[in-house]
Each structure stands twice: as C-alpha cells, then as structure tokens.
Amino acid sequence: MPATPALRRTLAVLAALPLLALAACGYGSQAKENTEQAIAGAPKVDGLDSVKIGYFGNLTHATALVGRHEGLFQKELGGTTAKYSTFNAGPSEIEALNSGSVDIGWIGPSPAINGYLKSGGKNLRIVSGSASGGVKLVVNPEKIKSLKDVKGKKIATPQLGNTQDVAFLNWIAEQGWKVDAESGQGDVSVVRSDNKITPDAYKSDSIDGAWVPEPTASKLVAEGGKVLLDEADLWPDKKFVITNVIVSQSFLKEHPKAVEAVLRASVKTNEWIGANPDKAKAAANAQLKADTGKPLPADVLDPAWQSIQVTDDPLATTLTTEAGHAVEAGLLQKPDLTGIYDLAPLNKVLKAEGEREVDDAGLGVQ
C-alpha cells in the first residue's frame, strides 16, 4: 500500500529526529573507543569478558562521565571489562546498539523514542533515567528584553523535531503565535542550527537567541547572552527528562546481571554526585577533556553544571508529554510507546540500596 503524504512526512521526521545534547563536541558519526582494566581476581559478571557502554561527551551525560572517571562502573563489573564508546550524535549510538557494538548507553529522549519506533519496539528499552533540566532560552539582551519581544525574532534550535525544537514550538503555540513547524517560518523565525555553530551564529548576529541545552546555553551567556527562560520552570516540580539509559533488548534478556551491575554503578554514581558536587563537576570536566581533548572553561562549566540534575527516575510522564508536544506541532503521529520502559532491573537495584522505586507511567513491558 503506498504511503500517504502524512505517513511519509511522519517517517521523514522520525528519520531526522535528532538528537539531544550534542553540544560539547562535534557531530561526526564515529565513536571513540576506550577500554578499562578489569579488576584482577574478581569474578566476571554473567561470565562476560566485557560490557560495551556508550555515552556522549556532554555534561547532560554527567552520570556516565563521572562514573567512568571515578571507576565506579568498573568496580561493579569486577572481572568484566568496561569498554567505552563516546558518540557525537544519537543516530550513531542507536546504530551501534543495533549492531551490538554497544550494549548499554546514555542517550536523549528523542533518539530513544526514534530508535524504539523505527524498530517497531524491538531494539531497545529505557532502563533508567540519568538527568533532568539543562535547557534554556538565551537571547541578545539588546534586542529581546521580555518574553513578548521574542515575537518577530530569529531563535535557533538544534534541529527540526529534536526535543528542544519541539519544546520551543510548543511554547510558541502557548503564546498564541503561529509558526509552520517544518519551515520554521511565522510569528517567530525558528532557525535550525547545530549546537556547535550556534555560538558563532549568535556572535555574527545571524540569530537573536537560542533554545538550547547545556553547555551551549552557557556558552551563549559567556558571549553576552541573557537567560530569558529556563525550560525547567515550565515543568511540574521543574523536572523533565534530558538523558535516559537504554539497553539492547537482546543484551537485557541474555545478561540481566550485567545490566544490574551497570545500573547499580549508575545509582551509586548519582548518589556520589549529590554528595560531592564540586568533586563530581571536576571529574566530569576531566573526563570531557579526556574524551574531547578540551575541558570546559569555568564560566561555562559552573552555570551549566548547576542547571543539570542527575536522577535515577526516568521521569516517564515527561517523555509522554514531550511526545505529545511533537504530535501537537504536527511533527509526529501519535506514537504507541507501550513497552519502551523496563524498570524492573533498576527498581531491584534501588530497593537493595534502600531507595524509592520509580514508575514507568504505564509504558513498561506488558
């Protein structure tokens, strides 16, 4: 049966759904691989020689950055080697998960949704949350002094259909303004711009502001921009998902103890970050330097770090809301996300650690 125009558009947007948190480094498709040393004499988890972990070189992946730098993942994996791959874009991490090059990884909600839907719900599960927040509307204070001044201005988002783009389109609609979602034209000009070039676009006066994740937001502030709105202020309890932990369904089925070990390390890392915020910030930046060759300067690192909250909770209701915003913007047909979560391994870990269990908002494995 030939695809309808609406279906073709939906598939095109799904294929293009970009991906969150691309700001700290470039946008290539190649992963950088590194291997830790297994703990001598320790038993192997599930009999595995290695577990392959993926993440972005970005502060919104703080759990992975800090957990790796402090050796917490390797500690939980014992005699099983932790192998790491760092990515610059979501599609390449999803491809790596599909091919078996990555077993478990940190990734944003848009690529997680995209990967799940494109595979018909067969390739991945979200098994934990990781971070909330870290998205801001930063503007040129000489041109935009209040929220109503955004009308008629040029505002950048990372890419058509990505989480920040959808959030901005939804905010525009709530102001009563009209914008064609696909072209970005209307009462506000939505300029799709890679996060890596957005600061230069701002400096050259090509844009008047940007709705972007950290650390791009703080980079714009360092260039003279002003935070006009923190997206967290638009959400209940000021929390919304920015990073999840995903796992290959086949790996989860075949090696549940290994998944539990990584999740246990994630939970312990988040606890350590909460207890040692300054040390954790330094550890994250040190790992960023190791991964990308360049640490973040203090005037970018400090405010960016402050705006990101690590969390074990995947904040599942906010994932549903984000998908709903994409539907309302006309960028996505209503998706069936039932089964995207399997939080049983995480809740087992949380219970053992004496922590509160988390909820999948009815989107768990049936």
Summarize the helices and strands and which ones pair or pack.
Elements: H1 5-16, E1 32-35, E2 50-56, H2 62-69, H3 72-77, E3 81-87, H4 90-99, E4 104-107, H5 109-118, E5 124-133, E6 135-139, E7 154-157, H6 163-174, E8 189-192, H7 198-203, E9 209-213, H8 216-222, E10 226-230, E11 241-248, H9 249-254, H10 256-275, H11 277-292, H12 298-306, E12 308-310, H13 316-328, H14 344-352
Parallel strand pairs: 2-3, 2-4, 7-8, 7-9
Antiparallel strand pairs: 1-3, 4-11, 5-11, 5-12, 6-9, 6-10
Structure notes:
The structure is a single chain. It contains 14 helices and 12 strands. It has 366 residues and is an alpha/beta fold. The strands form 2 sheets. A 7-stranded mixed β-sheet has the order 1-3-2-4-11-5-12, sandwiched between helices. A 5-stranded mixed β-sheet has the order 8-7-9-6-10, sandwiched between helices. Mean pLDDT is 89; it is low at 1-30.
What does this entry show, briefly?
By secondary structure, the chain is of the alpha/beta class.
Features:
7-stranded mixed β-sheet, alpha/beta, globular, 5-stranded mixed β-sheet
Largest sheet: 7 strands, mixed
- How much strand? 15-25%
Structural class: alpha/beta
Give a count of the beta strands, DSSP E runs of length 2 or more.
Answer: 12
Q: Helix content range of the residues, please?
A: 25-40%
User: Could you name the ranges where pLDDT drops below 50 across 5 or more consecutive residues?
Assistant: 1-30
Write down the overall mean pLDDT.
89
Rg calc: 20 Å
Summed up, the helix count is 14
**Intertermini distance:** 30 Å
Order of helices and strands: HEEHHEHEHEEEHEHEHEEHHHHEHH
> Which overall shape is indicated by the principal axes computed on the Cα atoms?
globular
How do the strands of the widest beta sheet line up side by side?
Answer: 1-3-2-4-11-5-12
